[in-house]
Design brief:
This protein has 391 residues and is α/β, with parallel strands linked by helices. It folds into 2 domains: 3-139, Creatinase/prolidase N-terminal domain (Creatine Amidinohydrolase, Chain A, domain 1); 141-387, Alpha-Beta Complex (Creatine Amidinohydrolase), CATH 3.90.230. The protein has helices at 3-12, 28-34, 80-90, 115-123, 132-140, 144-173, 180-194, 261-287, 293-306; strands spanning 17-22, 45-50, 56-60, 73-77, 96-99, 127-130, 196-197, 203-206, 230-239, 247-254, 347-351, 354-356, 361-363, 366-370, 375-377, 386-387. Strands 4-3-2-1-5-6 form a 6-stranded mixed beta sheet. Strands 7, 8, 9, 10 and 16 form a 5-stranded mixed beta sheet that branches. Strands 11-14-15 form a 3-stranded antiparallel beta sheet, with helices on one face. Strand 2 (45-50) and strand 3 form a beta hairpin.
């Protein structure tokens, strides 16, 4: 746990402390920030990091070791009345504390403490504010090693996409039967050879299936891929080692020698939206201007809406990327949620606008890494639809 750094941020934010709470492992953020991994969590615990001074723990007597490894004075309770009394003592003199809470549930990814516990803390005369920005500082920022792992994983992910398109090209030219699932499994073989892994199989979607942003082909339910088809490949992976972070991109192709005008036109709109979002991030970082996640979503969405396809862009523009493919930093979102978190240095996120028509869907996805001076796309950027059968 980065105690000194956390206390420094609490002081800068004008907070009296960060109060962690859990019951039955409902808050995975707490364990990662505190750097503990208890065997059993069947009773409620609290952990207070004050803005100054020594942390304090409040633990049930039958699980006194729940937070072993985290520093601090230990207080114990057995009954619910004793728990409330000692929690009040723990918070005595504290006026404002952060918790895993989000007002109006604007950012549900950090809204992990139940409403009753928030009410309990408030009943003790303490104002509760969201820990969302603190979580981002201590959960979403990458080390140099994490960035290096992202770039290495990206090489394998790009190779997997190239192999997926090549497999389609070869099968169609040879007149062989090929299904989405076959391409998906080929991509997983590239993963295995390249030393990367993913939480779920990649998305290989043809024609109308590409209109479902979370489509997943299975062996039992998988469409044929033939000449004249539209194909979307959404591929994400990370290196198989501790601390590795994900690389997550989407490319599209047409099974033919020349891409029809309809597909090319829709791709051009989505590309324009993607580039508008990227340009906004780059310019803000270079100017030293604070930029928040919802603003990036607004920039991409405005382009698609201007072209008359706003109703067909029904997911956020991007998500934070970390050790989980959906990380705990700012999302580029003003649709599904109103993400007011600032984009901060040493974080990475996807930019992936889309248009999903009934007959086909288009998405182009890149990863954007931000440091103290600049923002950059960390991999190849698709500039046009891939004509899969072209030599």
């Amino acid at each position: 746990m980065e105690l000194n750094a956390i206390q420094k941020e609490l002081q800068a934010a004008g907070l009296d402390g960060w109060l962690f709470y859990d019951h039955h492992r409902r808050d995975p953020i707490a364990y990662r920030v505190l750097g503990v991994n208890p065997v059993m969590v069947t009773r409620r615990w609290y952990y207070l990091i004050p803005a100054m001074g020594e942390p304090a723990k409040l633990l049930h007597r039958i699980e006194k070791g729940s937070l072993d490894g985290a520093p601090g004075v230990v207080h114990e309770y057995s009954s619910w009345t004793e728990q409330r009394e000692k929690l009040g003592q723990l918070l005595q003199g504290k006026k404002r504390v952060a918790m895993e809470y989000s007002a109006l549930n604007d950012i549900p990814y950090v809204g992990l403490v139940d409403a009753g516990t928030i009410e309990l803390v408030k009943s003790l005369g303490v104002e509760v504010v969201s820990s969302a920005e603190l979580v981002q500082l201590f959960e979403a920022r990458w080390s140099p090693e994490a960035l290096a792992s992202h770039l290495e994983a990206g090489k394998v992910v790009h190779a997997a996409i190239r192999q997926g398109f090549a497999m389609i090209r070869d099968a169609v030219k040879r007149g062989q039967t090929l299904r989405e699932y076959d391409v998906q499994q080929e991509i997983l073989r590239v993963f295995q050879a390249g030393g990367v892994e993913a939480d779920d199989p990649p998305d290989v979607a043809a024609n109308a299936n590409s209109s479902n942003p979370h489509y997943s082909a299975t062996q039992a339910s998988s469409s044929l891929i033939s000449r004249g088809d539209w194909v979307l490949l959404d591929v994400w992976a990370k290196q198989r080692k501790p601390g590795a972070v994900y690389f997550d991109i989407t490319w599209t192709g047409f099974v033919g020698e020349e891409v029809p005008a309809r597909y090319a036109a829709i791709f051009a709109i989505v590309k324009e939206a993607r580039d508008a979002a990227i340009d906004l991030v780059k310019s803000a970082v270079e100017a030293g201007r604070t930029l928040r996640g919802y603003e990036v979503d607004d920039a991409a969405r405005a382009v698609i809406t201007h072209h008359g396809y706003g109703q067909y862009f029904f997911h956020r523009t991007g998500h934070s990327i970390g050790e989980e493919v959906h990380g705990n930093g700012a999302n580029m979102d003003n649709l599904e949620t109103h993400d007011t978190r600032p984009i901060i240095p040493r974080t990475c996120f996807s930019v992936e606008p889309g248009i999903y028509l009934p007959e086909f869907g288009v998405r182009t996805e890149v990863n954007v890494y931000v440091d103290e001076k600049e923002a950059r796309v960390t991999g190849g950027i698709q500039q046009e639809v891939v004509p899969i059968l072209a030599e």
